[in-house]
Amino acid sequence: MEIKAFFDTRTSTLTYVVYDPSSKDAVIIDTVLDYDPVGSKVWTESVDKILAFLDGNTLTPHFVLETHAHADHLSGAQMIREAYPEAQVAIGERITIVQDVFKKELNLPDTFLTDGSQFDRLLKENETVQAGTLNFSVIFTPGHTPACATYRFGDAIFTGDTLFMPDGGTGRCDFPAGSAKDMYHSITQKLYTLPDETRVFVGHDYQPNGRELDFETTIGEQKRNNINLNEGMSEEEFIRFRNERDKELSAPKLLYQSIQVNVDAGSLPKSEANGKRFLKIPINIFRPDTSAESLELDKVG
């Protein structure tokens, strides 16, 4: 088994292709569809790199996996599936919780289903999935979102936004239905119980202090050195830290665009009567501004 990483500098996202060079079977994890909110422009540079790698190595992708419904980039899953129709877009079955939450938050139409049927396959906790000669197991790791999943291929795990590099800490837990308590248990009772030599491939690298890109570490290193949650930190300490830290964070700049696309398995909105596609951008639902000025604007609206 080999692992090829692709880094999107605009969103600091890692996409991985896990493949068997002998059988040519492959699985893709956390793809990116390029999007610029200025002018609401979509293009496929990041997906094209993945497709070129698959084609250049004559690989057959069986799955396009999502670790969760990302809030910082649009998924390129449907672009991959368009090129490889047999590849299944898959995510943990708790995505239905996220769909239900954001259908209400974003007032999505009645036609938007919250049963996960937009995805080709909903994965169950502790399920082992065969992908040609590859196989992986599913570990539910809620906290960042209730639907986060970590995928384990042999001695390697792909943690999405649950664990970053040790100097990057953990994902935030302040999105709707997120939970610092759930994240603590996901990490300490599931991931940190894996062998210390288990390789950890993270979903983002924000390159703290300007260091070089790094995306692979180990469970042992995480337990010793993770700046947000090492093995000596108590549940109470982590919850207090995470809640206080998250209050200081701004919303991801692509939050609403990403969520609308990603709860729909990476599908862009359908064209409306004028032939155009539209994304909804709500006002003041992520930590609403309660200043007097803002409240007056709300009254006017």
TrEMBL record:
**Which part of the chain is the Metallo-beta-lactamase domain?**
12-204
Q: Which organism is it from?
A: Thiogranum longum
What's the protein called, per UniProt? Glyoxylase-like metal-dependent hydrolase (Beta-lactamase superfamily II)
Pfam families in UniProt: Lactamase_B
Keywords linked to the UniProt accession: Hydrolase, Metal-binding
* A GO term, aspect molecular function: metal ion binding
| Keyword Coiled coil annotated | no
Gene3D superfamilies according to UniProt: Ribonuclease Z/Hydroxyacylglutathione hydrolase-like (3.60.15.10)
Highest taxon of the source? Answer: Bacteria
Which terms under GO biological process does the entry name? glutathione metabolic process; hydrogen sulfide metabolic process
